């Protein structure tokens, strides 16, 4: 702390107690002016975050209790609707399926991304030629615009002329007619999960890799000398020491996954027959396809609530872990 | 002596195989974009007879959208960097009360689904006449980069030695001068990295473009691809060519940011 003590403190200290009593009020005024000048650095960002994050959240909550429709856009007013919007989305008959789809999408995506990301991180923690270059190239899927990569997958997953079915056919792993990735109600959800896993692998790999690098090599060497095998070393050294990073990856992954819209809209559009529709996509559909902005807002709030509960519960159980890993 | 080396190279071979599998979609995108007719039943595995007709069609139909994407992304990056840099500096170097909460708030914005923001902004944008306008989309897209930039640059700037700013203050520079002529140049790499990511976030934005533009007057390339899908899913060469063009900045960023992140933090200013 002493090393990072800021400039401002030192100037404050110089102007403060060291001086005589009679000059105290000008000194205080100077300090106040100093403070105000410091806040000016932050003001644009605070205003921006208030306008584009704070205000929308508040307005969204208000809208969820209003009958906010197309006419509200012209009149600028929306009648109070109480809990009608929430009742409408919860009793629509679709909600159960949407919640289930969202849960399956989130859990399987996270499981796939995390497992493959951890496997790759462990693999790349070894030393071999061209390691750095190959690892950097693996980041590419994460950096591409989601719409672009989702479009590629939509083309690849086509039933008749998609390359995925062609490859499966070559390996005799698929029926002659091909897997109806995007057109079958029982497969579409897994198709979007597959795409989402592919997109999320680099993120998981990078963060877990940097976590692995933090573990001192001597510990591994000492354990190896003591005769611990690779699996035991992972179980008793790597995994416990990686826990804080695992927490960060999973919490962030959950928060990002539950709000995915672009990938699903592009790959399946939520279909067929809502088979790959999630709460987030439905929130978009309600507001911008059916112009029921109040219901869309209510659905959005449900999403935030789920994220919040998950984050709080998870972080509570991992508070100690967060203390070291939260900096990420 | 040769055995461990051989085993290392075996790992490299395995890594290349993993890379080939994971980047296959990227290959397939490029391969399809270079084929004259990717509507046929079987697209060839290799672009043996490469044709640029997909790109020609993409540029004639999407060139306009490309231009809009460039304007929006550059505009959003300029705003995001201008707003976030002084904030990151203040959070790193001034001991302001509540700064921990501000950093927490910046992190917590990641939790807000984009659709919630879009849903609330739509009505407000309508009143302010910002729907279907470049400034409206630029302002919204800038918000994607600001929290990330603040957090990233703050960690860069926390590592700046106080001595160099103190020296500037002693030389008579004001707070603003010390920031602009000392802190900014010294944290150049952090700022460039943040700006590159802000550019990428704005460039990749789809949700704000989809919701805050409705008339087609302001259509960035991501929305252009999406509209392609609705209109003609049978002709994949131009669609893939557009996707390749939309992916180009990411490829550039991967090369550039890799270098900037790796470059040292103080950049030799205090040596």
Characterize the structure shown.
Chain A is mainly α and 328 residues long. Chain A folds into 2 domains: 7-64, no CATH class; 91-325, MetI-like fold, CATH 1.10.3720.10. In chain A, helix 2 packs across helix 15, helix 12 packs antiparallel against helix 15 and helix 15 crosses helix 16 (319-325). Chain A is built from 16 helices and no strands. Mean pLDDT of chain A is 86; it is low at 1-20 and 324-328. Chain A is flat. Chain B is mainly α and 271 residues long. Chain B has one domain (61-262): MetI-like (MetI-like fold). Chain B contains 12 helices and no strands. Chain B has helices at 2-22, 24-33, 53-93, 99-108, 114-128, 134-158, 162-170, 175-186, 188-204, 207-212, 221-231, 236-262. In chain B, helix 3 runs parallel beside helix 12 and helix 6 (134-158) runs antiparallel to helix 9 (188-204). Chain B starts with a helix and ends in a 9-residue tail after the last helix. In chain B, 46% of the residues are buried. At the A-B interface, helix 1, helix 2, helix 5, helix 6 and helix 7 of A face helix 1, helix 2, helix 3, helix 4 and helix 5 of B.
């Amino acid at each position: 702390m002493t090393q990072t003590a800021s400039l401002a403190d030192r100037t404050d200290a110089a102007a403060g107690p060291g001086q005589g009593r009679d000059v105290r009020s000008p000194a205080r005024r100077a300090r106040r002016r100093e403070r105000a000048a410091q806040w000016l650095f932050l003001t644009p960002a605070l205003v921006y975050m208030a306008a584009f994050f704070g205000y929308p959240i508040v307005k969204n909550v208000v809208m969820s209790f209003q009958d906010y429709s197309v006419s509200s856009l012209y009149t600028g007013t929306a009648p109070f609707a109480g809990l009608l919007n929430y009742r409408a989305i919860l009793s629509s008959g679709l909600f159960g399926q949407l919640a289930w789809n969202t849960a399956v999408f989130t859990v399987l995506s996270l499981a796939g991304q995390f497992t493959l990301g951890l496997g790759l991180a462990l693999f790349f923690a070894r030393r071999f030629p061209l390691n750095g270059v190959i690892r950097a190239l693996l980041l590419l899927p994460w950096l591409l615009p989601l719409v672009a990569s989702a479009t590629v997958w939509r083309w690849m997953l086509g039933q008749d002329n998609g390359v995925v079915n062609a490859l499966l056919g070559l390996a005799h792993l698929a029926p002659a007619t091909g897997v109806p990735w995007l057109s079958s109600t029982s497969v579409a959800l897994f198709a979007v999960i597959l795409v989402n896993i592919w997109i999320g692998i680099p993120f998981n790999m990078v963060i877990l890799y940097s976590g692995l690098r933090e573990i001192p090599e001597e510990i591994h060497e000492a354990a190896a000398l003591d005769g611990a095998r690779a699996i035991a070393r992972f179980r008793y050294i790597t995994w416990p020491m990686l826990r804080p990073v695992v927490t960060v990856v999973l919490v962030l992954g959950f928060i990002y996954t539950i709000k995915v819209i672009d990938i699903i809209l592009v790959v399946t559009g939520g279909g067929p027959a809502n088979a790959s529709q999630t709460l987030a996509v439905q929130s978009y559909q309600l507001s911008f396809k059916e112009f029921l902005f109040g219901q869309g807002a209510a659905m959005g709030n449900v999403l935030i609530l789920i994220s919040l509960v998950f984050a709080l519960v998870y972080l509570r159980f991992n508070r100690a872990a967060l203390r070291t890993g939260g900096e990420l | 002596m040769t055995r461990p080396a051989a085993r290392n190279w075996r790992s490299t071979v395995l890594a290349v195989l993993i890379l080939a599998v994971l980047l296959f979609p990227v290959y397939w995108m490029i391969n399809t974009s270079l084929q004259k007719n990717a509507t046929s039943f079987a697209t060839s595995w290799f672009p043996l007879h490469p044709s640029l007709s997909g790109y020609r069609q993409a540029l004639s139909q999407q060139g306009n959208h490309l231009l809009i994407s460039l304007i929006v992304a550059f505009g959003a990056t300029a705003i995001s960097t201008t707003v976030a840099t002084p904030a990151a500096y203040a959070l790193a170097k001034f001991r302001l009360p509540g700064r921990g909460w501000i950093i927490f708030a910046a992190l917590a914005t990641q939790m807000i689904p984009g659709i919630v923001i879009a849903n609330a902004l739509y009505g407000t944008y309508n009143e302010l006449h910002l729907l279907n306008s470049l400034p409206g989309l630029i302002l919204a897209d800038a918000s994607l980069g600001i929290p990330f930039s603040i957090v990233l640059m703050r960690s860069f700037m926390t590592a700046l030695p106080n001595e160099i700013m103190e020296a500037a203050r002693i030389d008579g520079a004001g707070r603003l001068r010390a920031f602009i002529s000392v802190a900014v140049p010294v944290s150049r790499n952090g700022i460039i990295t943040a700006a590159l990511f802000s550019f990428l976030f704005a460039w990749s934005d789809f949700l704000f473009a989809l919701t805050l533009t409705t008339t087609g007057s302001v259509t960035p390339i991501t929305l252009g691809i999406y509209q392609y899908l609705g209109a003609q899913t049978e002709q994949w060469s131009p669609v893939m060519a557009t996707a390749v063009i939309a992916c180009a900045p990411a490829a550039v960023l991967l090369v550039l940011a890799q270098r900037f992140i790796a470059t040292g933090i103080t950049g030799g200013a205090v040596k």
